[in-house]
Amino acid sequence: MEIGNGQSLIGLVVVMGICWLLSEDKKRFPWKLAIGALVVQIGLVLLLFGVPPARSALQGVGAAVDGLSSSTQAGTAFVFGYLAGGDQPFPTGIAGAPFVFAFRVLPVILVVCGLSALLWHLRVLQWITRAFGFAFQKTLGLRGPPALAIGATIFMGQVEGPIFIRAYLDKLSRSELFMLMCVGMSCVSGSTMVAYATILKATLPNAAAHVLTASLISAPAGVLLARIMVPPGEVEQGGDAPFGNDNRYDSAIDAVSHGIGDGLQVVLNVGATLIVFVAFVAIGDKLLGLIPPIGGQPVTIERGLGILFAPLAFVIGVPWSEAGTAGGLLGTKLVLTEFSAFIKLGAIPAGGLSERTRTIMTYALCGFANVGSVGINVSGFSVLAPERRGEILALVWKALIAGFLATCLTASIIGAMPQALFHGH
Question: Which whole number is the average pLDDT over 341-348?
Fold first, then answer.
């Protein structure tokens, strides 16, 4: 085992140790679940990257992402012309069309939302969701309803997933409710997976495969850390949860139309959030600029976050020489959004970070755990289960911590794996 691999194993202990320190009942550490969740994560990674048929399927995902990106660009260029990759009206000195986030990434979300709704109407996503829900139910010892919601969350998003068990939300235990919030923050949605892969594909080989795997294997991590922090306080019993009538469409056209409408809301939210939060950081940096430089470098929010989170980046497997940069990315993800962090990661030149560090950070950043998601969870769950608003408000900040650490746990798993496993992909 290489030194870096052993370093990542320390990260597993540190992450679970932090959650245990924050536990509501430190005497009830779920040892059996901890072993089961880690085995599930390791097993999924070995399956997806080590078994030839699964590896080929994952390569197909990468090709599908490239196809979606190029097809989306064709539609975007038709609407926005040279701004989105159409023929340039004047020489720019840039090889190919310029990469403009608003025209290269945000439209991908629209297309994938429409496609996801269509696949849901055709029952493709329903069967996939059921399969993952069944797997989580059997391997992690969960009841049917929360297991189904977790399976849906992987593909649909942090609030959209629980919609499918809306009738059961008032019957969930406090621990199960907390678990759904944690898993929602530890995963991402199908639409954003493709967007992240689009951002990273120029600097990270097999970016789409890594992003998809990250969201899949972070779900068991979210379950584990949620159970450590808020152990079940009563016997949880129950069977399967059938799909309700929510998110049903009258026809394929109706599905696509609704998907586009939902995607538009996501695009507007992502774009507006990035504008405001990046502006806030710029304001903060200008205020910090009044402080004299320290160590010959100006004081900035990113530099401060890098110093704060460098130790965490180090224990999950990042070399200390790169821990400052990686810590800054972790802080950006938590304080701003994972979109901001992925944009920064994709902008780091090839020699700025090793490929191993890029891979680890892709998994560490791939989750919705950021300050903005606190508001999304409060508003979303309050609508779905208004009678439990008090519990939601009491748990949401702890869910943010657990969701943030869940992706770090996943990154530690990846860091502990032999890197040849990913190079052979």
Answer: 89
The residue assigned the tokens 């696509």 is 256
User: Residue 343 corresponds to which tokens in the numbers above?
Assistant: 């944009």
pLDDT band at 225 (very low <50, low <70, confident <90, very high): very high
Confirm whether 91 is domain-assigned.
Answer: no
Number of folded domains in the chain? 1
- 127 lies in a domain? yes
To the nearest whole percent, how much of the chain has pLDDT over 70?
89
| CA-based nearest residue to 112, from 269, 266, 342, 219 | 266
Question: Mind giving me the DSSP string for 178-226?
Answer: HHHHHHHHHS--HHHHHHHHHHHTTTSTTHHHHHHHHHHHHHHHHHHHH
Q: Which domain does 266 fall in, by range?
A: 3-85+97-423
Segment 288-309, tens digit of pLDDT? 888 888 877 788 887 888 889 9
- What angle separates helix 355-365 from helix 207-229, to the nearest 10 degrees? 50
- Which residue shows structure tokens 């990113």? 302
Question: Nearest-CA neighbor of 195 among 58, 333, 340?
Answer: 340
d(CA 306, CA 272): 25
How many beta carbons lie within 10 A of that of residue 271, not counting itself? 16
Q: What is the band of 401 on the pLDDT scale with cuts at 50, 70, 90?
A: very high
pLDDT digits 0-9 by tens, 87-140: 666 565 544 455 566 776 778 778 877 887 888 788 887 787 778 778 888 888
Specify which residues 294 forms β-bridges with.
Answer: 297
Q: In the prediction, which pLDDT does 238 show?
A: 47
Q: Which stretch of DSSP H or E encloses residue 29? A: none
CA dihedral (81, 82, 85, 91) in degrees, to 10, reads 160
Q: Give a yes or no: residue 207 inside a domain.
A: yes
Measured distance CA(133)–CA(152) in Å, rounded: 8
Distance CA 402, CA 52 (A): 34
Phi/psi of residue 367, each to 5°? -170, 160
Pull the structure tokens for residue 141: 């010892």
Q: Are 221 and 240 in contact (CB under 8 A)?
A: no
* pTM across the whole model: 0.82
Establish if 364 belongs to a structural domain: yes
C-alpha 332/C-alpha 342 separation (Å) is: 9
Q: Say whether pLDDT at 245 is over 50.
A: no
